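Input for the complex:
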Amino acid sequence: MKKIRVGILGATGMVGQRFATLLANHPWFEVVALAASPASKGKIYQKAVKGRWKIDKEIPKTLKNVVIQSVEEDIDEIVRRVDLVFSALDLEKNQIKKIEEYYASKNMAVVSNNSTNRWVEDVPMIMPEINPEHIKLIDVQRKNRGWKKGFIVVKPNCSIQSYVSILTTLHKFQPQKVHVVSMQSISGAGKTFDSWPEMVDNVIPNIAGEEEKSEKEPLKIWGKIRSNKIALAKKPEISATCIRIPSSNGHMTSVSVSFGIKPSKKQLLSAIKNYKNPIEKLHLPSAPREFINYFEEENRPQSKLDRNLENGMGISMGRLREDKHFDWKFIALSHNTIRGAAGGAILLAELLVNKGYI
Ligand code: NAP
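Predicted:
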């Protein structure tokens, strides 16, 4: 198969760097354009990220000498060379919206990590193992905007990946109320301990805007397409607390849940194990073999030991036990810059290729 030519918008940032390493040997995609702000324009990639490479892998050899383009100034040249852009931009929301829409209007598939377009009615927000059918909203979007080939799809916030996945497998027990505390690593803020030394030996009890996203985004993912938009799921009601902790990578969640139909522990574990993963048979290159891995050990999952499970695309779970106020509680973990950002976006792009949208 001839590789699909892709570009990374925001290639110099933390998520952009993760895209670069994950796409370096991708069987379907070939990175042919790296773009960032005007300050990085004209520099070769290894110079542009010098002193701020934040990934535990080498800069891919094939990308070291690629000259960075400007996301906005070089837009017309970039769209001539690529079929798909991964957006990992961090700038003012209106500007991101304008940029992503412009690329889509120029026949680009835009797969975005940013929250700007997540609540736009005709933009699907997809986790491939959960709501791949929302992809059909792209047809509505193209019609609404008069775009022939281009479109925008988004992936949800990094902190919800673990508990939304697990609760999806428990749908038949009708989850009613969820209380979740997410303990989020510093790479979620695009930082390392070198660039954020204040986080060593520290915990910050607030992450701006994150609790609202953690409570609302799952309802769009679990929603249904009705009258050309997503009708939000009504249950479960989620209450979230988001905390920054001194860990480099991996977001851990502590989740309590009450159900309409009270399951036993055996029934819960069986539902998780036997979940009918809608993309399992597609054999997409970035899909984990096991979507959710349950640990029997009381001291697992641990960030350092388990965040890289299934190349960072697996969801880990453990400590399933009864809750005095809800019905059950558990711990879950997912890698925030892989499953929660670049890896999740690449899996989504693979699904789009498989379904003929790219
Ligand atoms: P980051 O490290 O701050 O990187 C931001 C990128 O945006 C850089 O490449 C930067 O280029 C570029 N940029 C900034 N201003 C620009 C401009 N005016 N024009 C063009 N490019 C510009 O941010 P990040 O942590 O990688 O996050 C990127 C996006 O992913 C954000 O929207 C974030 O919310 C989302 N996200 C992050 C995570 C995570 O775990 N970190 C998870 C999910 C989603 P220069 O280097 O040239 O300035």
